[in-house]
Amino acid sequence: MAEHTLILKLNDGTDIIPALEKLAKDKAIDYGFIESGCGKIKEFEIISHEQKGSVNRTLFKQEFELDAISGKIQRTKEHGFTIIVRVSVSSTGFTSNAGQLISGKAAGCLELGIRKVDLKKIIQA
Q1: Collapsing DSSP states into helix, strand and coil, what is residue 22?
Q2: Helices and strands of the chain, counted as H and E runs
C-alpha cells in the first residue's frame, strides 16, 4: 500500500478540524490516518463515554497537553470529508481526559502527523 506522512503545523488559536479539512483538500487526501501529535490544545469540546454507559459532552477552556491522538480523514461521495479525531489529554494537575474531538484550537504550536493512503493500492480480502 503506497502511503506517505504529512506534518501539519498549527499556530496558536488555529481551529483543528477545519485545518485538517483544508489539508485534505490541498493534498488531495481521499483516505488518511491521523497517527501522531505533539503540543497542546485549548478551547476544545469532546464527547466521551462515562461509567454506566452514559455519554458526556464536555467543553474545556484551558490548555491541555496532547498525550495521544488518532483518527481518520475520508473523502465522501459528496466531495466533503468525514474527519474523526480521538484525543487523550492531560492538564498540569495530571488530570486526564479522553474522547472524540468535536472542536478545538491549537495552543501554542501543535503538530499533527497524517498518513495519506493510496486507495488504489488497498487489497480487500
Answers
A1: helix
A2: 1, 6
φ, ψ for residue 48, nearest 5 deg:
-140, 160
> Helix, strand, coil: what percent of the chain each, to 5?
15, 60, 25
Domain range for 14 is 3-119
Task: Give the 3-state secondary structure of residue 40.
Answer: strand
Query: Does residue 124 lie within any of the structural domains?
Result: no
User: What's the CA gap between 82 and 75, in Å, rounded?
Assistant: 6
Question: Per-residue pLDDT averaged across 39-51, rounded?
Answer: 91
Check whether 123 has a pLDDT greater than 70.
Answer: no
Supply the pTM of this predicted model: 0.87
**72 SS3 class:** strand
Going by C-beta distance under 8 Å and a sequence separation of 6 or more, which residues neighbour residue 50? Answer: 56
Q: What is the CATH number of the domain that holds 36?
A: 3.30.1330.80
